[in-house]
Design a protein that fits this description.
Chain lengths: 192, 192
DNA sequence: CGTCTATTTGAATGTACTCAAAAGCGGTGG
DNA sequence: CCACCGCTTTTGAGTACATTCAAATAGACG
């Protein structure tokens, strides 16, 4: 595997491979098994994860016990419960592995240290949140302007490998619909 | 009027009134007339606005020419097209005054300068984006778990004065429904 | 091969939407 | 002061899309 971390950071800030290597010292590699919890609702999110391979997803659970998928993070994406990680309060969401997943973890403390030591890394994380916010605004806009079918098409267009890795009922939940509805949408699309 | 700016910043970071006063020098007061544009889609958002009184809203326009309200900012809230303000690329959204609105404006350049000069202000803006991101995640979670009726109830609970200031069809759009549907929801609720 | 889980299908229901029109409200000018 | 205009909200009737409940198939894995 290439240096995914370097590539990912490089996408946002101009930084040398050496500086990323220094930063890398503050991260720890870990393998998370399929369905293993990374963060559980009510816990504190002490780590931020960078997905090297596999994938994770976050969700909330409503009063009726139903999962609502909020985020899906495949390779080269960062995930945690942002509220809890930033504030160190209890997490709203659960983050769990979709399949066997290799991650690089950074603790809250090392994140703070990295931001102190490496201005480029500080800048990177600041822009990471900024970009996540901008993307999420687009998602909100999309929810109100697009039909479920359009949202599905755009999703598989921007993340073609999501189909292989993520069960359909999680994709449905992410899109804000029920698995049966997604099944019908797919059936309708396949007829074309 | 009290010092809304100081109060607002103070809510997030520990900072002296003097330091805010210094920062205040980099802002300019402006009155925006009802329906006046603050940012137009396709333009660059050169300013970030802090609403002192009145209110503004942002929206996208779809292929059919329909508005989709993304954000509503009443007093003591910050608004702009974040993507455009951060990146200086063309704005996705339009930001417009709901009624006569008094704002404090900060230009992109002064924002950068303020972040350089005043670490507390840098921290404030960083946390502003962070908090906005966390709130938006909650909104996304809410969209998929709550009915339109529940979302409406929660909205007027958290922002009781929104009813007086914002036309019902904008509130409907913000909630992701049509004005007719909101009217029917309100009718149903008033019967209880 | 059997079991467990995921996906698909069917039928009935519900919620929000469209189209269309009426009623309400606020401001302006005769 | 009232009549009129434009804009917002409400109401009605029919429709579309997603949901629910239920059951049948398909796939994955030991």
């Amino acid at each position: 595997m290439a240096n995914l971390l370097y590539q990912n950071i490089r996408r946002t800030v101009a930084i040398s491979e050496e500086e990323v290597e220094q930063f890398r010292q503050l991260l720890q590699a870990k393998t998370i098994q399929k369905n293993e919890f990374f963060v559980q609702e009510g816990d504190r999110a002490n780590y931020l994860a960078f997905v090297l391979s596999g994938g994770m997803y976050s969700y909330s659970v409503d009063e009726k016990g139903e999962k609502h998928v909020i985020q899906i993070a495949l390779e080269e994406h960062w995930i945690t419960d942002p509220y809890s990680f930033f504030s160190q309060e209890k997490a709203f969401y659960t983050v769990q592995a979709l399949l066997k997943t290799e991650v690089l973890l950074i603790s809250k403390e090392n994140h703070a240290r990295a931001c102190d030591l490496y201005p480029n890394i500080e800048r990177f994380f600041r822009l990471l949140v900024q970009n996540a916010y901008v993307h999420l605004l687009q998602r909100v806009a999309q929810i109100s302007s697009d039909t479920a079918e359009e949202r599905y098409l755009k999703l598989i267009q921007s993340h073609p490998n999501i189909i292989e890795k993520v069960p359909q009922y999680y994709i449905a939940s992410y899109l804000g619909i029920k698995p049966q509805s997604l099944s019908r949408i797919r059936k309708k699309l396949s007829k074309k």
